[in-house]
Design goal:
Helicase, Ruva Protein, domain 3, 2 domains, two-stranded parallel sheet, five-stranded parallel β-sheet, single chain, Rossmann fold, alpha/beta, globular
């Protein structure tokens, strides 16, 4: 049973982080909440948006709010794996005998900003993705564990795609959420101008340290989920697969491959964080549905017809949720043919 005092502590910490970040970031309330959900779920985030919309600033501000180590890695075509993970260098002891010593790379930090991750080669991208998945990196046959908590926030620019190396689907699946950064509206743009053209820009205060963050992550895992809520998450995943007999027509027509089980894990973990933030001790169906777009938009692969017609993945996922709810209402049997 989740203790009420621990839930209250989680809510206070989450709201404090949100307030501090909003001192610097104008708008993007939903994105901020979802980034914090990834932090407490133990996942990683892919931020996609045009240049100048605050992707990098959001990550830097989050790092300033936490008493955690932070590294920024600017991905470029000539970046090598050793530039990320580190390498063995030759040292001399007091007797002038040579020995190897491992020099840690920038990946050995609690929070990593992988800026424009699609500009590096697949070989370099895989070095980062190994650390994301294994929570450690292997150099010369030796596994070096990464600090905990460990959060990667990668950014990519969807406009300038020439000369880039888009992440393959299997590597995109390593990110818990994919978030779209929208353009600011008029009021937000005016506020951005006011905040950034004054003599003193707003600062933030530290809210959490590593021990406190790990404790809150453990609490997220303890939140119970009812059978019918878990079934909705599973049905949503199945409805992204064209092979499923109850898949909606839009999935059958336009989807080549649906979400992996990691998508279901992202739905449930994100739902647990959302429930805690609301002060509730269990996950609701609304929590699951609220996580569908960030958790699944990068896990659905369109076929040729879907690509040619430019089907919006967010629209497709809304149809998927409707089909999953219909399957529950009509008590249809759930299985893959």
């Amino acid at each position: 049973m989740v203790e009420e005092a621990r839930v209250e502590r989680f809510v206070r910490a989450f709201q404090a982080l949100r307030r501090e970040i909003q001192k610097v970031i104008v708008g993007h309330e939903e994105v901020i909440d979802q980034v914090l959900a990834c932090l407490f779920s133990g996942g990683h985030v892919l931020l996609e948006g045009a240049p100048g919309l605050g992707k990098t600033l959001l990550v830097k501000t989050l790092a300033e709010c936490l008493d955690l180590t932070f590294s920024r890695i600017q991905f470029t075509p000539d970046l090598m794996p050793a530039d990320i993970v580190g390498t063995n260098i030759i040292m001399l002891d007091q007797a002038e005998r040579r020995y190897f010593q491992f020099q840690h790379g920038p990946i050995f930090a609690h929070i990593i900003l992988a800026d424009e991750v699609n500009r590096a080669t697949p070989k370099t991208q895989s070095a980062l993705l190994e650390g994301m998945q294994e929570r450690g990196v292997t150099v010369a046959g030796t596994l070096h564990p990464l600090p905990s908590p460990f959060l990667v926030l990668a950014t990519q620019n969807p406009i300038e795609m020439e000369g880039t190396y888009p992440l393959p689907e299997a590597q995109l699946d390593r990110f818990l959420f994919k978030l779209h950064i929208r353009y600011p509206v008029l009021a937000e743009l005016n506020e951005i101008i006011d905040r950034t053209t004054r003599p003193h820009e707003p600062g933030v205060q530290q809210v959490l340290n590593a021990t406190e963050a790990e404790s809150l992550k453990e609490l997220v895992r303890e939140v119970p989920i009812a059978t019918h809520v878990r079934e909705l998450a599973s049905l949503i995943i199945l409805a992204t697969h064209p092979q499923w007999e109850h898949a909606p027509e839009v999935t059958r027509k336009y989807v080549r491959y649906g979400s992996s089980p990691r998508g279901a894990q992202a739905l449930v973990l994100g739902g647990k964080v959302r429930a805690l933030v609301s002060g509730r001790f269990n996950v609701s169906t609304e929590d699951i549905k609220a996580m569908v777009l960030p958790a699944l938009r990068h896990r659905v692969i369109f076929n040729f017809e879907g690509e040619a017609e430019g089907i919006n993945v967010d629209y497709l996922l809304q149809e998927v949720v409707t089909a999953a709810e219909e399957a529950i209402r009509h008590g249809k049997e759930v299985f893959l043919r």
